[in-house]
Amino acid sequence: MAIVYLNGDYVEASQARVSVDDRGFLFADGIYEVTPAYGGRFFLMDRHIDRMLRGLCALRIDADTSGLTEVHERLLVENGLTSEPISIVYIQITRGVAPRTHAFPATPVPPTVYAYAKAFHRPDPARWGAGFEAITVPDRRWARVDVKTIALLPNVLAQQAAVDAGVDDALFVRDGIALEGAHNNFFAVFGETLVTHPLTNVVLPGITRGLVIELARESGIAVEVRPIQVEDLVRADEAFFTGTTTEVRPTVRLDGRDIGDGRVGPVTRRLFDALLERVERHASGG
Ligand code: PDD
To answer: pLDDT for 106-118, tens place per residue?
Structure first.
């Protein structure tokens, strides 16, 4: 029986109700965040909260965010997840409930705040070691995907295209540039150098992306932050996606063609190992 948080209360998921006049439902007028906990301890929570505050600011949603850390903690407790190896908390804040008008409600209304927690399971080492497949899809999203809004229809369609193609991930391409996945950031390895798109309005500033860049630099791996031409991926040695629910996921085939030798490469493996070491240290209190 899952317990969720809704507007100040902890209730059974089946009992939680949001109005049909909620602007999240009518306009996708809101933002969300997904934060991982390892061994019941939230990981890089300040970075997730910071991104959420920037999103609220960009959308001009005036929400009281002072108790959100406690909401995260309590959801783990309520759902018996404090010893779970990996869990995630999803939180969504919309502009609130008001009769439908495109402009903001003339009289401000309280934002709707909804959150849930659940266990997350990493693929087993054999599955991870075999590598994953992706397809490219045209990026038809709006011009502010750096804001983590709940308006995710192009991402939904992209991920479904991947499912329909029998593969794991969808890579957004715009103007010949490989940007990011439907729900994760993208990296390629050329020779010894790790490359990923710069933080602009066309990619989400992924927390895992930032961590992986830090881990690469700490391990002496050269990092270039620059656009990747999709046509150059034919000569990439390795590629992978990163994200809270992706961690580091190796892509060994793109659009039916092998990346490098079609096997998980050493740079991807090193970075995944570094990530595992970091989160395991975090889980055990380090
Ligand atoms: N997705 N790019 C997009 C479009 C994303 O939706 C996400 C996260 C990322 C990776 O960000 P992070 O490393 O901070 O998780 C990149 C979340 C997990 C989701 O939609 O469920």
So the answer is: 999 999 999 999 9
